Amino acid sequence: MKAKKSMMSAELIQKAIKESFLKLDPRVMIRNPIMFVVEIGFVITLLLIFIPDLFGGTASRAYNLAVGLILLFTVLFANFAEALAEGRGKAQADTLKKTKQDIQANKMTGPDVVKVVSSSELRKGDVVIVTQGEMIPGDGEVIEGLASVDESAITGESAPVIKEAGGDFSSVTGGTRVVSDQIKVRITSDPGESFLDRMIALVEGAKRQKTPNEIALSTVLTSLTLIFLIVVVTLPFFGAYLNISLEIPMLIALLVCLIPTTIGGLLSAIGIAGMDRVTQFNVLAMSGKAVEAAGDINTIILDKTGTITFGNRMASEFVPVGGHEESETAAWAAISSLKDETPEGRSVLELMKKLGFEYEASLGEGAEFLEFRAETRMSGMDLQDGRKVRKGAVDAVKKWVTAHGGKIPKDLDQNSDRIAKAGGTPLAVAVDQEIFGLIYLKDTVKPGMKERFEQMRQMGIKTIMCTGDNPLTAATIALEAGVDDFIAESTPEDKIAVIRKEQAEGKLVAMTGDGTNDAPALAQADVGIAMNSGTVAAKEAANMVDLDSDPSKIIEVVAIGKQLLMTRGALTTFSIANDIAKYFAIIPALFMVAIPQMDVLNIMRLGSPSSAILSALIFNAVIIPLLIPLAMKGVAYKPMSSSQLLQRNLFIYGLGGVIVPFLGIKLIDLVIHLWV
């Protein structure tokens, strides 16, 4: 679902221009009170063009026409900014709608009975069979089989992914294609409620919900508008007292220049564009609130495997203990891995072949396989002859052996510590009451992670690594990666506990996950990013879904969230600074005839009261389209502390917001006088 169109493509601009006029509908404009006030001002001046003395004024038709046109363009430019932002989301939604189609499904109606039906007839709980070359008819979970699935229609990536029953990679999405083998899928959503349907609804910016911060800022801006409206309405009474004739067009122009039109015209576009940037990054945010929360994150919880490290822990050595031979340790390690389909389990058998060791594969026939569980932190086989083989974390296997009356070899801890200090993961192998040795698993920290965590630190964000490894291995990886803290031998409960601890200290927490056991922590976190390759439970618990299933992308999501907040703050600062400059342009021009002392405020030395008002009004209209690219793209974000960011924004957008309108209004005034 990568964006195919540039931000300013001709097609998007044409549609946005059309939408700008359609949005003049008062029923639409009233959603933006600031621009609605400007539109009412345009309607009043439009009447004055045809009936100049409607309110007893003396302003010419030409002056009323000039004011009216400027007000119209002000509203249109604001509508254009919003329409352009919405258009980008709609373009992505249109691409997704082309992906969504009616698919023929092989629905199982009995143990061996298959009926061909339309995908629109499928309901939650139905079971379908999908074979090579066929499209998956709806969201679901693989309950039988293993297949390679092409998800490029959803993620934009061409490389197929493996989906298999059980584990954390059983979730499939409707509209994707099986490119090899066959799988049996249980449908998990009713028509209209699929992941693709939700994506289409969410990326259409026009339907998004405003975030709490955006609502709060809108309330403040609306309150300011109401205050200035009251001030302007009462001005004629003060004008009569001072013998100043205040024409209706002048009062309207004054009101438009006083109210925060710049940020009012761009606020909605900033919010829509912020969510759109996340979507273009192939992350689906369930709400704008999640994107904003990402910008305020104080702590990030990261899984070691697949996020900080490549996650391809492979068996690299068999380490015997207690006087056993390497071949003996390797043989029992292989037997414990016969039915272990994890990468680690398969790597044990591959290492056996590489080293040329032999083992009794027949022992696996009829044996009961025990999958790895977070609670036991072991897997293994219960053989038919009664022997129990276990493979897992050293401390877990030690407890299991002692519970069965066995003894711990003296050299076990020494060898496991050696592996852990080298950054590897030791797995102990035991049979009944005896530990035979260790499997040395190696993993590698991804390049550049240390630098990225340093950036997080500069942003004031604490990073915590969670891993099932023992403390020594965890400490080695944490030091190499450069995280601030780590939790070794962590369980799902540990993740929730650390999230709650950080939240109790007033911090906002983000985390990634893909498994069902991650769902509670994803729900607890302020920002939970689930992998698209993960389970349905994980995706439902999170408030963001990464379509590329890249756990390290949480770092970029945080940066995008901060960029959204920065953009809104920067443009709000610029807008307020703009208003200050406009006050110096228009207020002295209105009152210095009756109050000569106000001439000291006329520091711009504008030509006349009329040209001052028109100049300020024109600048007010022109500045909105000039800021649209910045609102769409976002303010460039550089990792730094909050105080440094504040100083930088005040200097660039605060001081700049005062200087630019002073120069702009003066230049426009000079042009008006040359033209007149």
Give the biggest sheet.
7 strands, antiparallel
- The overall average pLDDT, rounded, is 82
β-sheet strand percentage = 15-25%
Number of domains: 4
Number of helices: 22
Low-confidence stretches: 1-7
Terminal residue distance: 53 Å
Question: What spatial form do the alpha-carbon principal axes imply?
Answer: elongated
Structural class: alpha+beta
Radius of gyration over alpha carbons?
33 Å
The portion of residues assigned to helices is 40-55%
Number of DSSP strand runs = 20
InterPro entries: ATPase_P-typ_cyto_dom_N (IPR023299), ATPase_P-typ_P_site (IPR018303), ATPase_P-typ_TM_dom_sf (IPR023298), ATPase_P-typ_transduc_dom_A_sf (IPR008250), ATPase_P-type_domA (IPR059000), HAD-like_sf (IPR036412), HAD_sf (IPR023214), P-type_ATPase_bsu_IA (IPR006391)
Binding site for Mg(2+): 514, 518
Family: Belongs to the cation transport ATPase (P-type) (TC 3.A.3) family. Type IA subfamily.
Subcellular location: Cell membrane; Membrane
Properties at a glance:
phosphoprotein; ATPase_P-typ_transduc_dom_A_sf; 4 domains; Rossmann fold; alpha+beta; Calcium-transporting ATPase, cytoplasmic transduction domain A; seven-stranded mixed beta sheet; ion transport; disordered N terminus; single chain; metal-binding; 676 residues
Describe the structure.
The structure is a single chain. This protein is an alpha+beta fold. The chain contains 22 helices and 20 strands. Mean pLDDT is 82; it is low at 1-7.
